[in-house]
Design a protein that fits this description.
two-stranded antiparallel ribbon, Dna Ligase, domain 1, 16 helices, 3 domains
Length: 382
């Protein structure tokens, strides 16, 4: 064998050996970075938000992720970013990154051209539009203010089909009609680059599909005191926030309907105010500037707040329903209003364990309040 042929063979063998060696090193690293989470074990379960400035490189990105507890080895992370060519394609701006993302999943969020990442966001029954804004923002989709602004989209209210009812009642109390009540509680797969308006439209369309038939059933009733669809959703939202156990939903719905529509009698005057604490809470979320009693509101309703007469959502201050829904009810709460309990209860008080004691008269209710013991919330004060 000639010397030149021997040399070429040695070069080929060495090249193959080098490639095998590189592969033995890079393949495990690639597998680990693609599949396994990159963050520290003690990182917050909610993740963290980082801000990338224009022209920042892989080392600066890795340092910020490490400082937030989202990357355990910033050098390995930065090396991987360069190997896949993402160093020159980092996306400037604010990025919310949940803990537990793999390196590849992290790149989907912070670099251009590495996929259109989708996050899964669950909206529980009884969430408000403010809760929706917070959950979406925490998932990295837009700022809370953008969601709040989009939730007042008049065109989407028209899509629901209640725009005129909603606008009339809201303007009567000096507040703005919103999509509250029509953002169907469900789990949604949302693109990180989606606009709040597009996601809310999807939630409204889900409401039309899942809850729309129940609202139409209400609209077809001609009985005295029948609710229109917007009032139906509004009452269901109060039931959603008041009921803690499933078998009390229809009973609580019946109490509210009795207060609204039951005829007065000589021996039992029917209180027309619903006196539901969650309506007061919502007023302090939606229009805190309207009532000084809302100053410093932290979620707990106080006697000062229930006594205030300037909260536009308070059912202590006004008879009947508030100007619009106070939350986004699920199907069970909507059905409870469609098929309420048939009884003559007018009051209820919490007795613990999420349950209530129901009463037909004020005297019986006052006894139940005394017997409920200290620490229990009086859900229906006379």
């Amino acid at each position: 064998m000639s010397g030149s042929r021997r040399s070429r063979r040695i070069v080929r063998v060495l090249s193959v050996a080098g490639l095998v060696l590189v592969g033995l090193v890079l393949v495990p690293i690639g597998w680990l970075t693609l599949v396994y989470p990159s963050g520290e074990a003690g990182a917050s379960a909610r993740g963290a938000t980082i801000v990338l400035d224009a022209n920042e490189d892989a080392d600066q990105l890795a340092a910020k992720l490490a400082a937030a507890g989202l990357v355990s080895d910033p050098r390995v992370f930065a090396t991987y970013v360069r190997l896949v060519g993402a160093d020159e394609r980092l996306r400037a701006g604010r990025h919310h990154l949940p803990s537990g993302l793999s390196v590849r999943e992290t790149l989907e969020r912070v670099a251009v051209g590495y996929g259109r990442p989708v996050v899964r966001v669950t909206i529980p029954e009884g969430s408000t539009r403010f809760d929706v804004a917070r959950r979406m923002s925490d998932a990295g989709v837009g700022r809370p203010s953008a969601w709040i602004d989009a939730s007042a989209d008049d065109a989407l209210l028209a899509l629901v089909g209640v725009r005129d009812h909603a606008r009339h009642r809201a303007e009567h109390r000096g507040v703005r009609a919103t999509l509250e009540g029509y953002l169907f509680p469900d789990t949604y797969d949302v693109r990180l680059d989606a606009t709040p308006a597009s996601v809310l439209e999807s939630m409204v369309r889900t409401w039309k599909r899942r809850a729309g038939p129940l609202a139409r059933a209400i609209a077809q009733r001609n009985a005295p005191g029948a609710l229109d669809p917007h009032a139906f959703v509004t009452l269901a939202s109060i039931v959603e926030r008041e009921a803690r156990v499933a078998d009390e939903r229809a009973v609580i719905a019946g109490v509210f309907l009795n207060r609204m529509f039951a005829p007065q009698s000589a021996d039992n005057r029917v209180p027309r105010r619903l006196q539901a604490d969650p309506t007061v809470s919502y007023g302090c979320l939606a229009a805190p500037e309207r009532s000084p009693s809302c100053a410093g509101f932290s979620g707990r309703v106080t006697p000062t707040m229930t006594a205030a007469r300037d909260n536009p959502y308070s059912t202590y201050a006004f008879e009947g329903l508030p100007p619009g829904p106070i939350a986004n009810p699920g199907v069970a709460a909507l059905r409870a209003v469609l098929e309420p309990g048939r009884h003559d209860y007018l009051y209820f008080v919490a007795i613990g364990g999420g349950r209530h004691r129901f009463s037909r008269s004020l005297d019986a209710h006052n006894r139940a309040v005394r017997e409920s013991g200290p620490g229990q919330v009086n859900s229906r004060t006379p």
